[in-house]
Every structure is written in C-alpha cells, then in structure tokens.
Amino acid sequence: SNPLHREVHQDMEQPLCHYFIASSHNTYLSGDQLLSQSRAEMYARVLQAGCRCVEVDCWDGPDGEPVVHHGYTLTSKIPFRDVAETINKYAFIKNEFPVILSIENHCSIQQQKKIAQYLKEIFGDKLDLSSVSTGDPRQLPSPQDLKGKILVKV
Fold first, then answer.
1. Dist CA 96 CA 68 (whole Å)
2. Which of 5, 19, 65, 128 has the fewest CB within 10 Å, making it most exposed?
3. In order along the chain (154 residues), what is the average pLDDT of each group of 10 residues?
4. pTM of the entire structure?
C-alpha cells in the first residue's frame, strides 16, 4: 500500500464540526446485536483501523461496577474499566487526532460517578475537560488543537 495514504494532507485547523469523523456503532460487539460477545479488544481493533469515535453503552453492573453491553439483549457484559483501559492503550498508536467516546448512559448516579472516576483516573491529562458552549459551533477547537485528547460525548 502507498505510505502517503497514511498521512493527513487536509487542513486540520478548522472547528471540529467541519469534519466527517470515522465512527463505530456498538463498537464492543464482536458479532450480531442480540447474542454476540462483547469484547474490550474490539476497541483496540477499530482505533487502530482509524476510527476516531467509539460507542460505549454503559449500564449498572454488579458490585457497583458499571458494565458495557447492548441493553435488553443477551450480549455479554464487560467491565467499563476494561473498556477505558483498552481505549487508553490504543487511542493514539496509529493516529494522534482526538478520540471521542460516545457514551450511551443508562447508569444510576452512583455508577455514573464511578465512570467519571475511571475516566479521570485512566485517561489523566489526555481527558479533555474543557467545557464547550454549544451555542456557536465555529468556536469548537480544531482536530489539530485536540491532538492526543479524549473527548466525552454523552
């Protein structure tokens, strides 16, 4: 394959909303939406394939530990912590542009607090905690500004 195809030649200084973002739906599933296994490794796979937005469906799990799975189905459950650790490990191996966690939140306040704790603990300085007012999309930071950052969309 042509190595030039792996390089970014576009202007990456525009507001984030000016770009199409490679996104993954039900990222954690290794197969169909009803019966398949949920696997943290699926995040490693899609991030290394160039995906910059991954979906994390969060639900209350046992012992106060949030889990990721496709709700109301027979898909298996994985600890949220494992998912966050996998994303942290693989987010920027192939690509420095920001990663967006699209969190679908079905958790109680108690387990939401646990998710917030894990996000801060696992991602550390990579977690972008700057608040964006949604009024004017032209004020959004650019992909260049956000290199190496993890954004959370809920």
1. 25
2. 5
3. 66 91 85 76 92 95 94 84 97 95 97 98 94 70 95 92
4. 0.88
